[in-house]
Amino acid sequence: MFVELINERKKHFARLREEAQRNKPPTKAQQRKTMCIYLKNMAGYKDKNLKNKSFDVIKKMFDKAYKQVNTFIPMDSEGSGKKDDNSGKKEENIQDEDIAINYEALAIKSPIIERESQILGANLNAHLPEEYGWIKGQEFEE
Q: How far, CA to CA in Å, does 108 sit from each of 31, 103, 128, 132?
């Protein structure tokens, strides 16, 4: 019974030492390493940008990049914060522009060129029909 009590105390204190070891804050070198990894992956920094910089400089760069990434709001989201007072005017201008579309320019067909012919370097004008107004050996006229 006494031996069991001593073994339990040993295990208990071993658990406390392990827990204390796990709960230690990271060293400056460990913090610098994790910040450098974050800057490389999220902010696009390269190794040469981060070498020979002090911990404080890297900390400032990290804080700036972390704030920028975490405060990002997509433009098309509803909670984008700023709203334009001219939003109604812009819609009216777009509607007016719809009326002024030149439909003749939209009616002109453009040739569909196959990707395979571009890769192989084939003569592109060889398979174009005459309805496009192109004749072999002549330039396109506007």
A: 62, 9, 15, 9
How far is it, in rounded angstroms, from Cα 106 to Cα 102? 7
d(CA 73, CA 78): 9
CA 12 to chain centre: 49
Mean pLDDT of the chain: 76
Q: Please tell me whether residue 65 adopts helix, strand or coil conformation.
A: helix
pTM over 0.70: no
Tokens 């997509």 found at: 74
Tokens of 139: 């330039």
The CA distance from 71 to 115, in Å, is 42
Residue 53, exposed/middle/buried by CB under 10 A (0-12, 13-18, 19+)? middle
**Chain segment 79-108, per-residue pLDDT in tens:** 655 555 555 444 444 555 556 666 666 667
CA distance 24 to 45: 29
| Angle subtended at Cα 108 by Cα 107 and Cα 109, rounded to the nearest 5 degrees | 110
